[in-house]
Automatic annotation (TrEMBL):
Gene Ontology BP terms: glycogen biosynthetic process
Name assigned to this protein: Glucose-1-phosphate adenylyltransferase
Family: Belongs to the bacterial/plant glucose-1-phosphate adenylyltransferase family.
Enzyme Commission number: 2.7.7.27
ATP-binding keyword on record: yes
Keywords: ATP-binding, Carbohydrate metabolism, Glycogen metabolism, Nucleotide-binding, Nucleotidyltransferase, Transferase
Organism of this sequence: Chryseobacterium jejuense
UniProt keyword Transferase present: yes
InterPro entries: ADP-Glc_PPase, ADP_Glu_pyroP_CS, NTP_transferase_dom, Nucleotide-diphossugar_trans, Trimer_LpxA-like_sf
Length: 422
């Protein structure tokens, strides 16, 4: 079957709901699972599906994302594969930035003319899932689809946060509502598996994964179909083009908020996590020449470690510890994500900081960290206590912020010895 496909990963906008993790980086560049970036997920799904022509559209805070992609994805000279950046640009025909997801693709179409493709796979850069896109492509081609939307069954409570569609028995989408109110859900149930029906998951939510037949997408853009896929393109295509729902039954989560980001990372610590890092479909990322992690005298339970860590903590439990993390003796880390560091401090600097009573990069002695996210390159002094929970009001507190009771220490923040948060 002809799968002549080009994949487009949307680099995302400001990502305000993930602040402060997106203060200096775009959403797809946010570190996940201790050693990856969110953008590695859709790119890896493409590569594991045999799709190796990939473009990443970037606009906001794109420097770290550009650097990561440049340093991570290389193909040999005998391959036609690529992972390239398409940055937002102003030109003589258009002096505005991207106005929405569809507008980002529309403005990029002129750069696709040099490629030979029949279908366009459009992906979000801030989701966690493992999916074989070949199955979705086969469904699209066999069904004669103009547009196919990957969907996942959700319950009524979650449905209000997604684009909800209704489909018939053959997968044709008959209606679509972007983030409907609860009282609009009546009659929007679709045909789902018995297991999902039993769990109350009878509503089909758009996953933000689309396959367009090339000629149809060009026609839609020529007709001025709108600037956003969820708000404009999809509703306008129903009844006019063959618009299909492809139901996905696996694990998928949208990393849209601090809470969802926190829960997705801590889920990796479970005995049987929903997202399987140890499957036969690898997650690709930048190859770092780091030493193995070193752990000395620590009690460790349900923890995930990146590379190059130096751990002397008393206890680490149900936590993700990122690359190059240093945790000094006597410290306890519980239900937290410590992202680690971009570089190592030299030993001379460490000795001088110890003499002067200044924090070193990492977590100092006799600290207690619970329900927190520590962004990269943090300096946590000795005897610091950070205890998240609903007792702390949400807000921005300078070196850290709080959302849904989760304390997020900002990138490069210095927390003085003896500080108590929470």
């Amino acid at each position: 079957m002809n799968r002549n496909v080009i994949s487009i990963v949307l680099g995302g906008g400001r990502g305000t709901r993930l602040f402060p993790l997106t203060y200096s980086r775009s959403k797809p560049a946010v570190p996940i699972a201790g050693k990856y970036r969110l953008v590695d997920i859709p790119i890896s799904n493409c590569l594991n599906s045999g799709l190796n022509k990939i473009l990443v559209l970037t606009q906001f805070n794109s420097a770290s994302l550009n650097s990561h992609i440049k340093n991570s994805y290389h193909f040999d000279i005998f391959s036609q594969g690529f992972v390239d950046i398409l940055a937002a640009e102003q030109n003589v025909e258009n002096d505005s930035w991207y106005q929405g997801t569809a507008d980002a693709v529309r403005q990029s179409m002129k750069h696709l003319e040099k490629y030979n493709y029949d279908y366009i796979l459009i992906l979000s850069g801030d989701q966690l899932y493992q999916m074989d896109f070949r199955e979705m492509l086969d469904f699209h081609i066999e069904s004669g689809g103009d547009l196919t939307i990957a969907t996942i069954p959700v319950n009524a409570k979650d449905a209000t946060g997604f684009g909800i569609l209704k489909s018939d028995d053959e997968g044709n989408i008959t209606s679509f509502y972007e983030k409907p109110n609860y009282d609009m859900l009546e009659g929007l149930q679709s045909e789902v598996s018995e297991e999902n029906k039993h769990r109350g998951k009878e509503y089909l939510a758009s996953m933000g994964i689309y396959i367009f037949t090339k000629t149809i997408l060009k026609k839609m853009f020529d007709e001025g179909a709108g600037d956003d896929f969820g708000k404009d393109i999809i509703p306008n295509s129903i009844g006019k083009y063959k618009t299909l729902s492809y139901q996905y039954e696996g694990y998928w989560t949208d990393i849209g908020t601090i809470e969802s980001f926190y829960e997705a990372n801590l889920d990796l610590c479970l005995d049987l996590p929903q997202f399987n890092l140890f499957s036969s479909s690898p997650i690709y990322t930048r190859a770092r020449m780091l030493p193995p992690s070193k752990i000395n005298g620590s009690y460790v339970s349900k923890a995930v470690f990146g590379d190059g860590c130096i751990i002397m903590a008393d206890k680490i439990e149900n936590s993700v510890i990122g690359n190059r993390t240093r945790i000094d003796k006597g410290s306890t880390i519980v239900n937290s994500y410590v992202m680690g560091a971009d570089f190592y401090q030299n030993t001379t600097e460490i000795v001088l900081n110890d003499r002067g009573g200044r924090p070193n990069m990492g977590i100092g002695k006799y600290c207690y960290i619970e329900k927190a996210i520590l962004d990269k390159n943090c300096y946590i002094g000795d005897n610091v206590k950070i205890i998240g929970g609903k007792h702390i009001p949400d807000g921005d507190y300078g070196t850290y912020s709080v959302q849904d009771g989760i304390v997020v220490v900002k990138k490069g923040a210095v927390i003085a010895p003896g500080t108590h948060i929470g």
